[in-house]
Design goal:
single chain, 617 residues, alpha+beta, Heat Shock Protein 90, Ribosomal Protein S5, domain 2, Ribosomal Protein S8, Chain: A, domain 1, 3 domains, eight-stranded mixed sheet, five-stranded mixed sheet, 18 helices, extended
Length: 617
């Protein structure tokens, strides 16, 4: 039998490694930014074109590289961060595997320019698909500039799997946030398609958070600080009233490295227990400092997961630190036994003696007497209005005409509390029976074969979804103008998302007066919704865009219609009168698919009479 095992060529091995390291343009941004941080840069400039598909360029003012180091950096497993296996458990830098540049160069056109402070001239290297095309000396500023062009040019299948520019931009901004938050002492500049996106100067952590997420974030932050022998916790949590239904502003950093940890997230959620509603999530920016020997960060290719030696102790300390921070700044509820100052005696009366009240009685008062012997206020008879006869003008003529037409007193109907023997009043519907509510959640409609049970919230969702989708597509929505425009404060990332879906929202009936850096003014809203739910509707809509991350076209319209329908639909537990119930049932059966909600949940079920009969046998 011939030998069948063979060594893979280097370019194939590099492409396989690139599949682990580079999943999308955001992965390239992450690797290049982390390399710039490790190089000691104090100013980093990120330039992106076409959401990273055409260009990702990172320029830093770090230490730079010599010509030999520049050439060697594109080889696999070449790194300056570690030299022996023991260094893996004493890491203080970001990149250490030595595969970032090699993997990126295997699937893109890469141009590197670099110069050290001691060198008079720099180095320029061009690599295409792991092949070094050129290396030459060139004038360059101190530091390093890496331009990654035409990502996945030699792997069309991987390029086809990339999402729309909106989605890929969202991922790039997320990675940019994670690196910028971890290093507030470094200045960051980001441009996308020639337009500035972020300009973050050197600052402290609180100011860096405000610069990224907007000035409104400053009032939401609660400092958290605790230092023990095992872990040092520092950072901020958002006040409980700003908890959201989406997992948006949640950041964990361990030794200035962003991580994802459901276990630590549970510790934060338990610290907020009793302060936030069920189904909402707190926001946090928490930094943990631990001994590098006590963690293992090499368990995942993206290095976003960490294994702790003593995670139970870290869980307890983080939970206690957050509770202490919330209590220290009077965020958590406390038992207050102090008296209310509003019930205190005013100072002017505090030294005065109490005066005994005097009681005067009119002994001549007789409530049954109309004579003038009693008190004048009670003896005076009520005077009849002078124009009382005007109330009856024309009454005789009207009565006479009614009698001429044959109307008698027997034809007059009087309201009475007549006992009918029925629990509900008759209200015929197209289903041919009565409608009533159960638990203010379900609508019951008798039908010929038995009973129909309709979930009112899901039914209203289906009705609104089809109406909104039609309005977005046909662009014929009606808007109700507001007397006073609404102003909503949103963070910069949320405003960017809102700007992307602004056109579709205008087709549903929204009228945006202006969208500035940190607020949006709304002068018109769709007919049928109240001003009180606009803020919640916009917030949930932005959260849904973040989570679903739809592609452009019909997918985005469909997602917007689903999100708005879920926010606008009548909630479970809301009582409905018979007219409202019938109207909802009629609108539901006028829909194209009345049996399922926009998210394919059943809207109604039927109970056959035979099934009911079996229950009593």
């Amino acid at each position: 039998m011939p030998d069948i095992i063979q060594l893979l060529p280097d370019h194939v091995a590099n492409q396989i490694a690139a599949g682990e390291v580079v999943q999308r343009p955001a992965s390239v941004v992450k690797e290049l930014l982390e390399n710039a941080i490790d190089a000691g840069a104090t100013l980093i400039n990120l330039i992106v074109k076409d959401s990273g598909k055409t260009l990702v360029q990172v320029t830093d003012n770090g230490v730079g590289m010599s010509p030999t180091d520049a050439r060697l950096s594109f080889e696999r497993h070449a790194t300056s961060k570690i030299s022996k296996a023991e260094d893996l458990f004493n890491l203080h830098t970001k990149g250490f595997r030595g595969e970032a540049l090699a993997s990126i160069a295997a699937i893109a056109h890469v141009e590197l320019k670099t110069r050290t402070a001691e060198a008079e001239i720099g180095t320029r290297i061009c690599v295409e698909g792991s092949k070094v095309v050129s290396q030459e000396a060139e004038v360059a500023p101190k530091g390093t500039t890496i331009a990654v062009k035409n990502l996945f040019y030699n792997i069309p299948a991987r390029r086809n799997f990339l999402k729309s520019n909106t989605v890929e931009s969202r991922h790039i901004i997320d990675e940019f946030h994670r690196v910028a938050l971890a290093h507030p002492k470094v200045s960051f500049i980001m441009e996308h398609n020639g337009s500035p996106v972020f300009n973050l100067p050197e600052s402290n952590l609180r100011q860096r958070i405000v610069n990224i997420f907007g000035n409104k974030t400053n009032e939401k932050l609660v400092p958290v600080s605790e230092e023990t022998e095992i872990v040092k916790v520092n950072g901020f949590v958002l006040k409980p009233e700003f908890a959201k239904k989406s997992r948006g502003e949640q950041f964990f950093f361990v030794n200035d490295r962003f991580i994802k940890s459901p276990y630590l997230h549970h510790a934060v959620a338990s610290a907020f227990e009793g302060l936030i509603k069920e189904g909402v999530h707190p926001g946090y920016f928490l930094f943990l400092e631990v001994d590098p020997h006590s963690i293992d960060i090499n368990i995942h290719p993206t290095k976003t997961e960490i294994k702790f030696d003593d995670e139970h102790s870290i869980y307890a300390m983080m939970r206690a630190a957050i509770k202490h921070g919330l209590g220290q700044f009077s965020i958590a509820p406390v038992l207050d036994f102090n008296k209310d100052a509003g019930f205190d005696t005013p100072y002017d009366y505090s030294r005065k003696q109490a005066v005994k009240p005097t009681i005067e009685v009119d002994r001549n008062y007789n409530p049954f007497s109309n004579s003038s012997g009693g008190t004048a206020a009670y003896s005076r008879q009520r005077e009849k209005p002078a124009n009382w006869e005007a109330l009856y003008v024309g009454l005789k003529d009207e009565s006479f005409r009614n009698n001429e037409q044959g109307d008698t007193s027997e034809d007059i109907e009087f309201e009475s509390d007549e006992v009918s023997g029925r629990l509900f009043e008759s209200s015929e519907t197209e289903t041919g029976g009565l409608t009533f509510q159960v638990q203010n959640k379900y609508i019951i409609c008798p039908i010929r074969s038995g009973l129909m049970v309709i979930h009112q919230h899901l039914a209203h969702q289906r009705v609104l979804y089809e109406e909104l989708l039609k309005n977005i597509t046909v662009k014929e929505a009606i808007s109700q103008q507001l007397l006073f425009p609404l102003e909503l404060g949103l963070s910069k990332p949320d405003l960017e998302i809102l700007s992307q879906v602004k056109e579709q929202l205008e087709h549903t009936g929204f009228v945006f007066e202006s969208i500035s850096e940190e607020k949006v003014r709304i002068s018109g809203i769709p007919v049928g919704i109240s001003e009180s739910i606009v803020n919640e509707l916009i917030t949930r809509l932005i959260a849904d865009v973040k989570e679903d991350i739809p592609d452009a076209g019909f997918g985005l319209n469909d997602m917007l219609a689903k999100s708005m329908a879920r926010s606008m639909a009548i909630s479970s537990g809301t009582p409905m009168n018979s007219e409202a119930r019938e109207h909802l049932v009629h609108r539901l059966f006028a829909c194209k698919e009345p049996g399922v909600s926009p998210n394919n949940n059943p809207v109604l079920i039927t109970l056959d009479v035979n099934d009911l009969d079996k229950k009593f046998n």
